[in-house]
Amino acid sequence: MSTRTVIRGGLVITASDELHADVLIEDGRIAALATSGTTVAEGWTAERVIDATGKYVIPGGVDAHTHMEMPFGGTKAADTFETGTRAAAWGGTTTIVDFAIQSVGGALREGLDAWHAKAEGNCAIDYGFHMIVSDVNEDTLKEMDLLVEEGVTSFKQFMAYPGVFYSDDGQILRAMQRAADNGGLIMMHAENGIAIDVLVEQALARGETDPRYHGEVRKALLEAEATHRAIKLAQVAGAPLYVVHVSAMEAVAELAKARDEGLPVFGETCPQYLFLSTDNLAEPDFEGAKYVCSTPLRPKDHQAKLWQGLRTNDLQVVSTDHCPFCFVGQKELGRGDFSKIPNGMPGVENRMDLLHQGVVDGHISRRRWIEIACASPARMFGLYPKKGTIAPGADADVVIYDPTAEQIVSAETHHMNVDYSAYEGKRLTGRVETVLSRGELVITEREYTGHAGHGVYTPRSTSQYLN
Question: Whole-model pTM?
Answer without folding.
Answer: 0.98
